Amino acid sequence: MDAKCPHNSEVNCGDCRMNALCLPLALQAKEVERLDEIVQRGRPLQRDNHIYRAGEEFRSVYAVRSGSIKSYTVSNDGVEQVTGFHLPGEIFGMDGIGQNRYTNSATAMETSSVCEIPFNRLQELSIAIPTLQRHFFQLMSMEITNDQHLITLLSKNSAEERVATLLISISNRNLRRKLSPTRFRLPMSRADIGNYLGLTVETVSRVFGRFQKQDMLLVDKKEIEVLDLEKLRQLAN
Amino acid sequence: MDAKCPHNSEVNCGDCRMNALCLPLALQAKEVERLDEIVQRGRPLQRDNHIYRAGEEFRSVYAVRSGSIKSYTVSNDGVEQVTGFHLPGEIFGMDGIGQNRYTNSATAMETSSVCEIPFNRLQELSIAIPTLQRHFFQLMSMEITNDQHLITLLSKNSAEERVATLLISISNRNLRRKLSPTRFRLPMSRADIGNYLGLTVETVSRVFGRFQKQDMLLVDKKEIEVLDLEKLRQLAN
DNA sequence: CGTCAGTTTGAGCGAGCTCAACGTGAGTGG
DNA sequence: CCACTCACGTTGAGCTCGCTCAAACTGACG
């Protein structure tokens, strides 16, 4: 496999391009090596492949190496709720720690690859490397504040504000990965966007339409070009 | 101060009535003693007193000993969002870990008392007592899944379902504390309920009205009697 | 070239919002 | 002890944003 292939599984944490965003973030070279020893790099996943399903025994948390992953729950009455979109460098699966079972299911939204981090090993390592313990507490806390942002969004904001907020979030996360904040491809369908934001597909489609008419966006299927980032930011607040 | 006073600050973790629900949950007697050494028991708080405010430096997480606490965020445009209600035995303040600043503010909804747990000390202790580390990871994870339940509720459920879900949640948490699951006093105002559930005060009031007309509840101001727990459960799903 | 999933567009409807009025009870001062 | 206030809660009437249902469009893939 080509070293430049984004789904390459031959790299280790020290060489991984997501290095500066991912779990190694706060660690020293020597510590990264120890982390690297417990990380299992998986084969590439095809679209709609599951990484885990709700109810399965929790063993590991995961980091996105390439592609994009969505998390979702299914309630008693069978209604799905998308709870998160995960981009390269981001960690997911922490919902499983509490009950020792995943409460979410996770699937690839496109061809993707993930790193598996066995949680027992991570806990042991966190005792040996307090920085790692702290860092992981921080990651979980940020997941909490993220979820609370979404709660506020769903509780208080209009359809346009919700869509704008998602676009700004993706734009910001792209910036962090040194990608263009104004030109990107949405990895998820309109249905996923609507589900995540508590809107119907039709409403999402209409909002995109309005944003285009106001010369704020250029939308071509999943390709997005943000023409007026400032106006979009204001809407997202 | 009377040993039976619920706001008594003279007890230690080993003797505290919340013992079986709170942080000590998974610990052995000897370990509880060590936890006890770092816990600071505060003076009783009056209604509307703040424990901390959003933006303040994060130092500690807190446990409710008596009374009830609400967490809320304020967005850029000044809109408040209630993010949680905390009852005795529950931990709050974990949102501050990620950025080393609280993202929520926390106030007492009635006369209350809380235990302050300095986070640096808790981290150190977590290294010495792996069970504690695990337990705290679990607590944070359960905060995540709680928030995700709320996300689903806001995204997919009607006003009646939302109110029913809140009532069932409080009922269940009362049961855990060996209190009646069918007769209790809501510590929060209608405005807080509405804010938390993404509804207006008027809608909350009307839903309570409808529930009463259907002989599901008996509502007298903040006093609630659940007459048909099963029907309420079904609505809450 | 037909099929099928995903998306867009249109028309009408309804749950919950807004605005406004009124009720209730705890606290305060005469 | 009553009159007044003020926060909180209830009730009513009308409106609106986003939903529902239905139809048409697009492009990828056989």
From TrEMBL, chains A, B:
Boundaries of every HTH crp-type domain copy: 157-230
A Gene Ontology term for the protein's cellular component: cytosol
Gene3D superfamilies assigned to the protein according to its UniProt record, in alphabetical order: Jelly Rolls, Winged helix-like DNA-binding domain superfamily/Winged helix DNA-binding domain
Domain annotation Cyclic nucleotide-binding: ranges: 23-121
Originating organism: Porticoccus litoralis
Keyword Lyase recorded: no
UniProt xrefs under InterPro entries: cNMP-bd_dom, cNMP-bd_dom_sf, Env_Response_Regulators, HTH_CRP, RmlC-like_jellyroll, Tscrpt_reg_HTH_Crp-type_CS, WH-like_DNA-bd_sf, WH_DNA-bd_sf
One Pfam family linked to the record: cNMP_binding
Lineage of source species: Bacteria, Pseudomonadati, Pseudomonadota, Gammaproteobacteria, Cellvibrionales
Listed name of the protein: Fumarate/nitrate reduction transcriptional regulator Fnr
